[in-house]
Amino acid sequence: MTTTHAPQALRNDRGTGVSNYTFIDSATQAESLAADVARLLRAAIAERGTASLIVSGGRSPTQFFEALSTADLAWRDVTVSLTDERLIDTATGESNERLVRTHLLINAARDAHFVSLRSAVADAGMALADRNRALLRLVRPFDVLVLGMGVDGHTASMFAGADGLAAALDPAAAPALVGLNLAGDAQARISLNRAALLDSRCICLLIQGREKREVLARACDGTPPEELPVATIVQQRQVPVHVYWSP
Predict the structure, then answer these.
(1) Regions of the chain short of the pLDDT cut 50
(2) Tell me: the pLDDT tens digits for 116-127?
(3) Which is it for strands 241-246 and 203-208: parallel, antiparallel or unpaired?
(4) How many CB atoms lie within 10 A of CB 223?
(5) CA-CA distance, 47 to 1, in Å (whole number)?
(6) Cα–Cα 20 to 30 A to 201, which of 53, 56, 165, 195?
(7) Where are the beta strands (DSSP E) in the chain?
(8) Are the CB atoms for 86 and 182 separated by under 8 Å?
(9) Tell me, what's the pLDDT at 10?
């Protein structure tokens, strides 16, 4: 993987290594992550004729999306989808789909296929079933999964204290989308569960700021996923995790 400085091995209490790459600023971070993701997608296409890319929303990935959108690769052979979504109109500013359509599915990447997490089905249970069927169109395991993390340690829509978090973190559950609700938040959410997130060949975690780095260190040091949900990603042995950090 591309790195500005020598990677430092972050380790948790189970002895699992997490590759950590430090960049001088967010622009360099975004360009390096975009180059690495493009390389992985090209390799997947060369090997299997198709590739899958799963991304998160939020503020952090905008520069990365725009850098990746210009990558020279066979975008028509790439299918893109989301780790999670708010159950709101995708035309609104808080929609992850809107973010991806505005900043990633442009330039060369406009030729990629996109699988939405929004369903035309009104019933919540039926909508989840509908979107789970839609995700079957993606190559599994996912070739590249790009996650973010909040200062509260959430990743995707797995927040500490959320209704539905236990089901999302259940290590025995089959890979699937699940519903989550946050106290005081009127917007219901759906998210890939732990099993679905880990059904990936490579996980890249994009974070910025010293506060998030400290939170990540706590997650690597053994804080339970119920307190810092990102711990379920960095405390596992199944999939390599590469952390891209800038101040």
Answers:
(1) 1-3, 5-16
(2) 998 776 666 788
(3) parallel
(4) 19
(5) 19
(6) 165
(7) 8-11, 17-22, 51-55, 78-82, 84-86, 113-114, 144-147, 177-180, 189-192, 203-208, 241-246
(8) no
(9) 38
Tell me the one-letter amino acid at 217. Answer: A
Instruction: Give the model confidence (pLDDT) of 23-49 as tens digits.
Output: 999 999 999 999 999 999 999 999 999
Tokens encoding 178: 């699940």
| Residue-averaged pLDDT of the chain | 89
Is the bond leading into 225 cis (omega within 30 degrees of zero)?
no
Q: Which helix (H) or strand (E) holds 210?
A: helix 210-220
Q: What is the pLDDT of residue 111?
A: 98
Least Cα distance to 53 among 146, 168, 122 occurs for 146
In sign, the C-alpha dihedral spanning 104, 179, 91, 27 is negative
Residues 6+ positions from 220 with CB-CB distance below 8 Å: 10, 11, 12, 18, 231, 234, 235
24's tokens = 């001088």
| Cβ pair 48, 88 in contact under 8 A | no
Query: What tokens does 126 get?
Result: 């039926």
What pLDDT score does 87 carry? Answer: 77
